Amino acid sequence: MVRRFLTLSPVISRLNLNPGIFLAASPSLRLQRQNLKPKISPSSTSNFQRTRSYSTTTRVSSLPRSESWKLDDDGLVVLGIETSCDDTAAAVVRGNGEILSQVISSQAELLAQYGGVAPKQAEEAHSRVIDKVVQDALDRANLTEKDLSAVAVTIGPGLGLCLRVGVQKARRVAGAFNLPIVGVHHMEAHALVARLVEHELSFPFMALLISGGHNIIVLAHELGQYTQLGTTVDDAIGEAFDKTAKWLGLDLRRSGGPAVEELALEGDSKSVMFNVPMKNHKDCNFSYAGLKTQVRLAIEARDIDVKCPVSSATKEDRRNRADIAASFQRVAVLHLEEKCERAIDWALKLEPCIKHMVVSGGVASNQYVRSRLNNIVENKNLKLVCPPPSLCTDNGVMVAWTGLEHFRVGRFDPPPPAMEPDDYVYDLRPRWPLGEEYAQGRSEARSLRTARVHPSLTSIIRAADSLQQQTQIL
Q1: What integer pLDDT is reported at residue 30 of this predicted model?
Q2: Given pLDDT bands bounded at 50, 70 and 90, which one contains residue 247?
Q3: What is the dihedral sign for C-alpha 391, 223, 437, 429?
Q4: What is the pLDDT of residue 181?
Q5: pTM passes above 0.70
Q6: Residue 354 pLDDT exceeds 50
Q7: Mean per-residue pLDDT over the chain, rounded
Q8: DSSP bridge partners of 93
């Protein structure tokens, strides 16, 4: 078979697409692997053979939108691997949504030791357990690698050192067993896992994605197509929870969010009058750096010894800490409420048929957050969708499910080589926006035009779709 490389247009080339992209000179292009696991009917075989494979991050099918693979979802089985931050996770999910296994190795002790995520130590911890985590996921699913249809892995955003461990493992498995591989956007996975648990959730919908490193509101038009309505201009809400927990002397082995939430139950949420951030900004962007400073000053004003754990505090000292925790949580979530209310109004103008708002990410496990946001969403005649806490924090299920969603429409890479050199440069995207900015919500303090390192997932897919249409015309 003859392949020829085509020169990308200036618009496409600026997207930094992998130079290894190829386009078929003939519609008879076949992937290197002919015996892929998905169950494909004879009538769809020719379409499958015309699938074009890009770099892991572009993952674009050459099938026309009007065509679809006649896949047997029950026959699809995907292994998902997640190592973007401080948890090593793997899961096996069937195409019909059945979770066959889920394994997570926590780095709680490291978090407590360093007072947060230490990238190098986190990478080493991932490397020590990744093989066992993946093997345990397969064993609990009563499957072997030969039973898989594909491997999905988080390639960004996240900590580069940590991402590399997961991607390297995924490519080894895919290469050894001749499996397609799907690169997954971490934040898209947080949004899409809601579709696994809420069968009525269809596009378009809204999503508030809140975690230790991310704080974004997006409008999900369709798979891979997102408009970013708002983001944080400095710190995410999860970072603020973690720092507050650390300064209050809480046990970080269970992460800052749950620790603050528990202590806040003992306090008066209006005892400390913190200012709500960005009250005068009529957009949907967030800021938690100032609130963190307010908390630190409140702790200093009450002479709280941050080196003394709350478990050893006096009764009065514990009450002071609880009051600060409750007051912080109230204002931090009030900031979410105000921005989400405006974002819903914006989203309904763009997509009037929206019925759901997803709240996902580690902070979405907080019951106070869920309760307050549910009031906002119901007042707008929408339905709040929150995955269970086990699927809000980083996990392999969300990666496997997102991989399945993209695999169904042909967005995947062919199997990598069985052996890759030790110095192989993996395509990792530590800073990778999910969607394109909504013009009205653009923040000059942190515009994606300067903050991004990679083009957004949405822009890549749109560019590849456009390129696909051009090649079909030729």
Answers
A1: 26
A2: very high
A3: positive
A4: 98
A5: yes
A6: yes
A7: 84
A8: 78, 99
Contact (CB, 8 A) for 270 and 254: no
Find where tokens 């899961």 sit.
91
Nearest CA-CA partner of 366 in 270, 213, 238, 248: 238
How much helix, strand and coil, in percent to the nearest 5, is found in the chain? 45, 15, 40
Matching residue, tokens 């409140």:
298
The whole-angstrom separation of Cα 97 and Cα 79 is 13
Residue type, 392: C
User: What is the pLDDT, as a whole number, of residue 90?
Assistant: 98
Q: CA distances (Å), 145 to each of 173, 184, 364, 404, 405, in order?
A: 7, 19, 33, 16, 20
CATH numbers and ranges of domains, the chain: 73-198+394-436+453-473 (3.30.420.40), 205-392 (3.30.420.40)
Q: What angle do CA 254, 256, 262 make, to 5 degrees?
A: 80
pLDDT tens digit string along 202-233? 999 999 999 988 999 999 999 999 999 999 99
Two tokens at 388? 């269970």
Instruction: Tell whether omega for the bond before 157 is within 30 degrees of 0, i.e. cis.
Output: yes
Say if residues 99 and 397 touch (Cβ distance below 8 Å): yes
DSSP helix/strand/coil, 69: coil
Q: Specify the DSSP class assigned to residue 71.
A: B
Strand partners, 103: 90
